[in-house]
Every structure is written in C-alpha cells, then in structure tokens.
## 1
Amino acid sequence: MAAERAGAKVVTVTSGKGGVGKTTLTANLGVALAMRGQRVVVVDADVGLRNLDVMLGLENRIVYDLVDVIQERCRLRQALVRHKHLSKLFLLPAAQTHDKTAVQVEDMVAICDELAKQHDVILIDSPAGIEWGFRYALAPATEVLIVTNPEVPAARDADRVIGLIEAEEKGPARLVINRIKPKLVERGDMLSIADVVELLAIELIGVVPEDQDVLIAANRGQPLAMAQDSSRAGHAFHDIARRMLGEEVPFQPLQDPGVFERFLRFISLERS
Amino acid sequence: MNSGNIVIKGIRQGLLVTLGDDDWDRALSSLESQLGENPAFFHGGRVALDVGGRAVSHTQIERVRSMLARDQVEMWALLSDNPDTQSAARELGLVTELTSSRRPGRGSARSSGQEDVKGPCAEAIVVRRTLRSGQSVRHPGHIVIIGDVNPGAEVVAGGDILVWGRARGLVHAGALGDEAAVICALDLAPTQLRIGGHIARSPEERPSQLMPEKASVRDGQIVAVPWPGE
C-alpha cells in the first residue's frame, strides 16, 4: 500500500483537464471519510480560484487561508475551518486575493507534514492544468486520485498527467471515472469504463454516475455524500472512501447489471 | 549517428549531441548541416549538448542555442568538464548535469539501458514502458517499445520502430531520410504514421480482428500488411 506522511495519507486529487469534477470529488470524499470516523482536512490548492469552501457551505466562515499560513499571518490551526455538522472534517481554504506564485513546493510539504500530526487523511484539491499549481499540489502526495470523464479529451489529459506523476515517482495513482451516463455508453456514444481503463492502464477506484443532484448539492453547499444512500452518486463517493481505507467494495451496477458486469469482468482480467 | 565528428544519440530526456574534437566553428557548422539535412528528425526535439572540455563563452552558448531554436530545437542542457563553461551555462538557465534528473529507481533504471549505448554503434534502444500523452522518444537508430504508445505521444527514429503493444500516437520511422525503414506493432493504429518523408493516417474503420501489422513504403505510399505475413 501507499506510503504515509507522519501516519496520515496525503491524497492529491487531480485531472489535467478542468471541469471534470475534482472539487466535487474532494468535497464528497472529505465528507464520506469524516462520516467514517476519519479525521480529515481538505486543502483547496486552487489559489486565486477557490471553490471548495462553497461546495462545503463554509464560505462565510473563512477567516484565514493557505497564503496567510505561508506568509505567517496566522498559525495553521487558526486557518482551519471546521465543518458545520461533521466535527472531524476541516477545510484549509485557498486565498482568493493571491495567485499561485504565492505558494512554494516546500510550503505545501511543510503544511501537510504539520497537518499529518493531527489528522488521518489530507485531501488536496489540485488546480486544473499541469503548471505550477499542479506541481505544488502533487509534491506532498502519498497517493494520487486521477479524475476523468468518459470523454476522449478528458482521458487524453488524464494520460498526460499520469505520465507526469510517474516521472515524479508519485503515486500510486488510481482512477475515478466521473459522470458516466449508462445510456450513452450503451448506445456507443460515450467511452465505456473499459475503454478508459484500457487507455490509462491504472487501477480503477471508483465510477460515479452522472447525477443532477450533485450539481444541486454543490449550489446548496451540502455535498451529496452527506446523505449516503439517497442517490447513486452519493453511494459511489462512499464506496470510493471505503476503498481508500482498504476495504474491498464491489462496484455498484450503474443501471443494467448485465452490461456493467461485462465491463467489470473485462477490467478484472486486465488487472490480473 | 556519427558524422563530421558529431555523435547524436537518444536519451531519456531527448537527444544528446556530443561535439567531437573539431574546433568550435567547425563543430558548429557540422551541427548546422545536420540540422539542415534532417529537419524532420530534429524538429520539436530537445537537445543536451556535450561540448567536452572546451571553454565556451556566454555569447557562444547563446549563438548555438538560437541556431537550434531556428530549427525548433530546444537546447535545455549543456554538458562540459570545464568549470567556466558550466557556470556560463548555468547563468543562462541551462542544466549542466544529466544525472540529476531522477534518483535511481523505476525511471532511470530503464533509461540506463539507453545511455549505455555509445557512439556509432548506437543502433537500437529499448524503452520498457508505456509512452503517455506528451512523452516522446527520439533516437537516430532503431527504437523498440515494450508497452503502448498512447495518443499524444511521439516516437521518432532514424531507423525502424517496433512497438510490442498498441501504437496509437505519432510514430515516425526513417526520420533521417531512410525510406526503407519499417514500423511494426502488435496493434498498429497510430494517430499519424510517418516513414521518411511520407505521411499516412490510420483508416477510420478498425478491423474487428486485431493483428500485428508492419508498415513500409511501397511505390511511394505507406502500406500496412499483417505481420508476419506474405
């Protein structure tokens, strides 16, 4: 299994392409892990374009941020925002008034080392792209989650990012396929899970079906994972959280079990 | 590749160009003619230049860098035993050591095989990993890839290319002008396939039965046939 940083997992969530659901996944995994008793910090590394706070409904509670910590205007603990309902979930918000040059690789590593003393899991929401923000978000990682959509451009960017992660010798990188629409896959209008896994050739840790409730939840600041069994997507986030904690969780059928089982058989063949 | 005392070989980070014992001006002009004769091979590449023990000034480094840049070649490293040359290169933002790239492990273990190949006998290199989007391998000899070439990856060889896996990216054999070069792959479906000066795309329709194929130039066109076959 992956290495740990002072006893905690540091998991960077990244994708290359923007808009595939990194922040949604980070928010929901943070919630799901905290509901499972983990002490969790979600770190918004998207300095200048923060929105993890909004998705968690914590925007109006921010006093200090990541850049304040780095520039020593406050102590790390002062910048952590505790979640309204989950006492084990904290947010380290990004600064909105700075840009990404305010953060150095060593800053992120030092902050994660410090957080690791008090928490079990640190989730870092990486900015899109492969530039500076991606570099410092990746630096402290002990594991990486790659988020992609079942679309050719997103998969291509994910491939590029996996190459960079391998070159940095970070990882293991595991794959989350987000926003899959079973009907489109069936009609052959969307890449299937098997297509994406075949191209990227890394371990699949989760498949999240398209669900409009995810968007509604994000607008309300109430991540879907808060109510575990109310939706397929919420369930999928909890399954990923459990797999991250080392549980063996079977993949849920997306719609028609017959079709999905065929995919799964293909995937497990690939891995063995 | 070895001509005019210049030795060129593929390394993990791109191409390594070693200038021979000629004086600076002659070495430079033979490098320039190499670039001029083989634009397809160099275009878009990255070069580490090994100047040996020469004392090379700021201005000279700038000149060779801009000469390479004219042909779309990026010079990212300058290697030398001469401390003055090294510090001049560092001041210009160039890397002066190749070894600093990675600690030993997965990455460099693979590349060491490439770097052991020296001089004119640098016939083939073996790359034992999948090339992902944005990654490229360039070598004046033959290239063997054990793994896939994903879309967005590039393989450019002076000689033949053998992909023991899926070839989906850009694959260019005979990039130094050898029209007799071949490209073989277990699944040959590259975004673009080039041999010498010829360019072809894969057919839009994929055959239902996948089989290894070999591409070569016949009567001025690139054709792919089952491999082995005929």
## 2
Amino acid sequence: MARSEPIQVEVRLLPPLNDTAGRDRVRLNLQGRATLAGVIEALLERFDAPGFRRHLYDTEGRLIPAWCAFINERPVRLGRREGLSEPVKDADEITFLLNLAGG
Amino acid sequence: MAKRKRIVYTNRPWEATGICSGCKLCELYCSLHHNGAFNPRRARIRVVELGTGIDVPVTCQQCQDPACRAACRFEAIEFDDRLKIVVVNQDKCTGCQDCVGACPYGIITIDPISHKAIKCDLCGGAEPACVAICPSHVLAALDDAAAGEYNRRRFAALLAFDDEAERYRPGGEEPTFKKLEKRSS
Amino acid sequence: MAAPRNSYAGRMLRVDLTSGRISTEEFGSGYTDLFIGGRGVASKVLYDEVPPEVAPLDPGNRLILSPGALHGTGAPAASRTTVAARSPLTNMHGDGHAGATWGGELKRAGYDLLVIQGRAEKPVYLLIDDDRVELREAGRLWGLLTSKVHARLRQEAEDQDLCSVTIGPAGENMVRLAGVFHNGADKGTSARCGLGAVMGSKNLKAIATRGTRDVGVADPEALKAAYRDYLETIALDPYVPPATRYGTCRFMMHRVKFGIHGAENWRYGAYDWQGLDPEVFRSDYQIKAGACVACPVRCRRDYRVTSGPFAGTRAKLEWETIARSMTCGVKEADAVIAWSNLCNHLGLDIEGTGDTVAFAMECFERGILTEKDTDGLELRFGNVPAWLELTRRIALREGDLANVLAEGVKRAAAEIGQGSERFAIHVKGGEMTAGDPRGMPVRAVSYATSTRGGDHLRSNPYIEEIMTPEEALEWWGSEEAADIAHGLKGKGRMLKFSEDLVTIGDILGLCKFAFYRSATFPYLYRKGVHLATRLYNACSGRSLSEKDMLLAGERAWNVEKAYNTRCGATRADDVIPARFFEEPLLGGGPSGGAVVERDKFEKILDEYYQDRRFEPGTGLPTRAGLERLGLNDIAADLAGRERLGG
C-alpha cells in the first residue's frame, strides 16, 4: 500500500471565520485527507470552538450551502454535494468565503 | 447600606463596536418602559450627535447633591430612599423648567406630553431598559465602586495605546485601530 | 391627546403647493388592509393619483412620503421610509428609501403618510410641527447644500431633534440624477429614480418635521419576544458578523471572488481592488460601527480621510459607492470618500451619477467626446480630479456636457448619439447597480424585472447562491434553481418569491441587510417572513399570517407593474443592456469571458411571468392575476386603457 504523502495547505480565513479563529491565515497538515472535506475537518480540529462551528453549520447540523471554497483562485461551492470531495494538493491556498453580498 | 447606581457610558474606544453606534434603541426602549409607547422625546437617556460621526448617550448622573433639587421651588424633586437617587414627584412638579436650566448635564428635561420634568429613575430598580437593549453593550448600571473599576481599566487600556503599537488585544478581545488620534481628532 | 392603541397614527397629510392648501385626511383600513404601509401604500397612491397623462416634472406629479409601517417603533432595524413619484428617469414608477429618523418623526407628528402635489411659485419649505403645518418661504435656503439646509432648519427651530427631507443644488437644478436626502448629507438618501428632480420641479426645498407624540404598540410583550427571537437568529446567521465588523464595504470580497466588478463602465469583471479592500476602509478610514435607528446589526459606516489631498473629508458611504467608483475606474479609498462627500452634499445619487460619468469616460476613451466637449477635462477611467469635477458640474448643470449628462445616461446617450447608446448601462432608463450579471442568469433577470429600473434591491438576487438543491425542489419544483451556472427550471419562480419577500421589507420599513439577506434560506425566511409578520402584528394589533404578508409584497409589486404597464411598458422593457448579452466579460478572473445567455434569460423570464400570472409572452398583468390580489379597480382601469393582458 502506497504511503500517503503529507499534504500541507494554507488556509485563508475571511469574516466571520477570522473573527472567531483570531487570525487570518493558518497552515494545516492534512494527513491523507486531501479534499475540501478534509480541510474543513482539520480546521475544526484546530479551532475547536462552538462559535467557529456555528458559522459553518446550521441548527440542523448541515453545512451552510452558501459557503464557498476557493482553491487558489478557483471557486468551489460547498453546498453542492460534489464540492466537499474536491481534491486539494500540497501548497494549495484555500480561502473560505461566505459568498454573499447584499448590494 | 446599598450603594446608589447610575447609568454609565462604558465605551471601549479601542473597538469599533465598543462606541455608541447612534442606533437610539436606548431612547426607544426607555420611553416604552416609562410610557408604554415609543417616543425619543420622552426618553430619559438621549443620544447626542456630535456631528463628527460620533454619538454619545447622555443620562442622569444621579448626583448626590443635585442642582435640580436645589433649583426646585416646589419641592417636587425628592430623595428616594430605596434607589438612593432623586426622583421627580409628578404631582408636585409644575413644569416650570428651573431644574432644566440648573442641571449641569442638561439631562433633566420636560416631557412634551405630560409637561412635567422627567429624569432617569433607573427603571425603578429593575434591569434598566437601556442597558438591556443596547446592542453594543456600552451602557451599564454601576455603583461607585464598579464605576471606579471600569474607569481604571479604560484608563489603563488608553495608556497602553501608543504610536508604536499596530494593534493589541486587551483581554483577548478584538484588535484595535491603528491610531487613536485618527478618531479623536 | 389619548395614547395611540397601535403603531398607526390614523391620519395623513396632503399639501397642494399650487393653491397652498394643507389638509388632513383619515388614514384607515382603506390603506392599511391591503397595502399596510411604506412602499405598499406609496405605490397605490401613485397609481391612483398620477395617470400617464401627467409627466414626471409636471405639477400634477406627486411626491409621496410613506414611512414603513414599523418605523417609529422599537422593532429592530425598522428605520426606513419610502419616497415615491413618477420617475423623471424612467417615466414610470419611481421610489427610493432611506434609513433615517425623518419617517418616525412624521409618525410622531401624527401622520402615516404625506402626499405633496402641485408646484409653488417660488421656493418654499414645508414645516410640520405636530398639528401646525405651514408652507414658508425658502429663498434664503435655496442654493444650500443638503447638510447646510438641515443644520439651518434645526438652528431656526431651536430644536436639535428636528428632522428634515431636503434636496441639494442638484435637485434644485432638476438634475435627473438628484436624490432626496433625509436629515442632511450623511443620514439617509432616497437617491434613485430622480426623486430629487421631482421635488425641485415643485420648488420645494425642504420638509422640516417635528413630532412629539407617542408611536404606540398594541402588544409590547409580543414585540419584545419577537425582538429576542430576532437577536437569536442573527447570532446564528454567519451573514451578520461581517456586516457588523466591516459594514457593507465587505461585499468587495464577493465581487473579487466571482470576478464581477462592473469596472470601467461594466466591461471588466476582474479588476485592481486592493486599494479598496474592506480592511483598508476599516483600519484607515472608519470612524466607528454606526447604526440606522433601532438597528442592532450596526453596519452603517462614516469614513474620514486624515491625510493626503482629501484630508479632512468625512462621508457616509456604502458598498455601492465603492462599486460605482470602480465603474469609473477609481481604485483609491480616499478618492471614493471624497466623491461620496461631494455627491451627498450636492444632492446626487451615486449610482446614477457613477454610471453616467462612466458612460462619458467610455465615450471619451473612444473619441466620441473630446477635450473640447469636456471643456479641458481628460475624462479617462480612473482620472480622479476629472471625475470629481465632472460630478460637481453635473449637480450644477455647468457647461453643455454636464447639462446633457444631468439628464441621466439614457437621455445623454440619445443626445450624444454616435453609437454611444451601446455604452449607456441602464434598465428602463434607471442606471444599473450592484455587480455584473454575466454568468448569473437569475441575477440578470432580476435586474430586468425590477419595477423601478436597474436595481438589485428589488429582490434578493443572491438567493440562488444560498438555496440547497433540496430546498429548491421543495419550493420551486426543481433542484436546478439551486445551481447558479446550469439549469433553468424553478428559477423564474424563485425570482418572483425573492421579489415579493423583499417588498415586505419596504412595506414595513425593515432594512434589507438586517432582514432580507442571509446565509441560509431558513434564516432568510425566519427573519424576512416569520419575524417580520410577528413584529407587524405586535405593533399594529392585527393578525396577519405569513401568507398574508407575502401576498402584501406580491400586491405592491403588481401595483407597480400595473403602473409601468399603464405608462407603456412591455416585455421589451424587461431587458438588460446588450453589453451583457453580447460582450464577454473582460479582465479574466473567475467569470472572465462570460455572457448572459439570451435564450436562458428569456426562458427564466417566461417562467417568471407565468408564476406572476402575467400574460404569457407579453408579460402584461391579467385580470385574474390582479383580482386575486384584490386589485379589481386597477384591472378595470388597465382594461379601459387596453393595457390588460388576456
């Protein structure tokens, strides 16, 4: 069985996540979890606070569909079922954005 | 002996949301508490717009030797033993406005509907309506000891804010602005 | 005077500037039953009182000021007033709203509605002081900036709580891009649709208002419970904390990540944005987190420049000011603040002014306008001094070019000709707003169907970004509605719902950012329909259902659609500029190369018309559709004018 390479990604946090996390950027090690789902898992392990979780999941425990991840500059909507299994590579920069405006 | 309280503007000038936003919910809910309806002109706390983008909530300082009581010719301003503050006796008040002119804070006013003097009465000892509704949590009902403690923390935070520091986090709260003077100029 | 039993005053004020006659009328169930307040009432009054024979700048046009039904109460974010008139820009329904205390002050003076008609012979202002209502000479106010008039009125009344609605020099000059300003330059603006020009055409400089009465609430405990529920909901909704932290300038990140800026007159989707980063506004220019009256979200921002060429300038501005600055190619935050300051004090709408100046810039860059036409201005995208100077000239109609541009982008393009109509970015004559629609079909159609011209606030165009496939299936009959890029089914229905929903906000006077924007559909529904209904019932003493409330939104929409139809609008007017269909978005980025696909657009519009019960194909309102909403009189009127669909 091939050994899975350790993957390190840089995650950029925009509001409201950066408020709760207390920082704008974090480097995460994804041991064999080279997908967006893995990135979120790693984020929640790193910032294990109810406030953080509340931003991502609604009261039914579902991932809020308006969240969008940008892998480098490419947007991936997380609400669509495939979004979470989108693969990520070593040294990818991933930005989480609540892709909403209002104006 | 229970200490008298007053509503203090406990602003946190190092936070954008620690300053009065000018929402005036305090005025609205103060009037609701006292009159069962909404009317900022009948509120006992008023937000003063300084015209610079800064708003300040102003209310009765609950002076222990109040100028309003000294000015009243009708003995309508009485000391309330339970609350340890003065209150306006609405039956004795004639609406002459002597107290309005005497108050150094301009905070006792004439109610436009009853035509009597009105002032903050700490909501009769219940949780003050203004404190409860303020979304920025910049109002607090404090006795002297608590007010002193708040002033000490605030002074310390302001002292620590120097030109070298980009941002800092007092007690782990949100970051400050770059330069205090930008806001105070 | 007896304390009010609920949140209505029960009276309206009518002022005839031609005769000087001032009268009060009852404001009762004839208005409140079906139309409730705010935009609902204003639209019906406009329909009833301004027929198509009356042109927008004629004395017969009305200036209708209708506070939201909840304005003046402690309902959260209940701060908005509707101002309506027949629009000098679109020649159809026009309205604007503003989150300022003037509307509440009118209620406290004892009026739920103010209707102004006629034209004064010389400049006047209206003074409303509880029961005392007078028209006064405004000769010495005429020419003053919006800020100065407001300050002068407060000073003369010796009342720092006095509220006012004013026009600046732009409105006086009947610039079609002029707005109506509430409480000075920095509190709130009913900016769109040329409302300022209507007020100016009536020689009305200001409406000074003082009210000392209570605004009642039928059930204070129910109101407080709904307020608590509201706070719990926004604590959960991740849409809200960034609003409080950054204000609306944070919408930049949405535009950046989808590459839909609308930069350089709606040609570039990706653009240089770092100078306008929300962090820049927050760190270097923000005074504090401000709030409209009664709002706990606190997303209002005043900004101040402390160094550089614009040092000392302070202005309130919102995201759209930044967006329209990019439409003009401007990339510096201090310049944006300076431009906002200029527009606010002169009395101009930043949306229309931004699009009109951008149009002129594109004409200049293409050689259609030269320095001879611009009187020496090098009118290139991003040339800040030229941008500011042309804005100033437009407000004052100074010079031939500014005089033409002051007519709005549609008329200016018709006047300038030479193919420049292609660069006039408007819908029905109302200049475009928000972000570029290329690549987002529902958003594209939403701009086209707006009843007041190009606008994003008539619906929630972001609804397509938050629906889950399951919710889309349940509500609109197809999962496709939740997919921005693909599919068609359900999108027209979704658009109709989002329009009716948002209209509730304008009827009640609730802020869209506080109630009609959310990260999830359940939160959106909870705030915008469920809580809105509870708040209204608690304040008014009525027992509307959520369905009733959605119908009220639908009804107001239909009144406006009928009004536009009566003015001659057809399906041909429910369209967006050719640029979006034919020119791929420039600048690369995530939406680079995208267009709005015409066939998709038309199919969504077809489904939308069907769901709205408009005539298939033409989109005209039908008798069945109107009567279902209790608008029988409107159906009869349209039938009589042969403007009713079959």
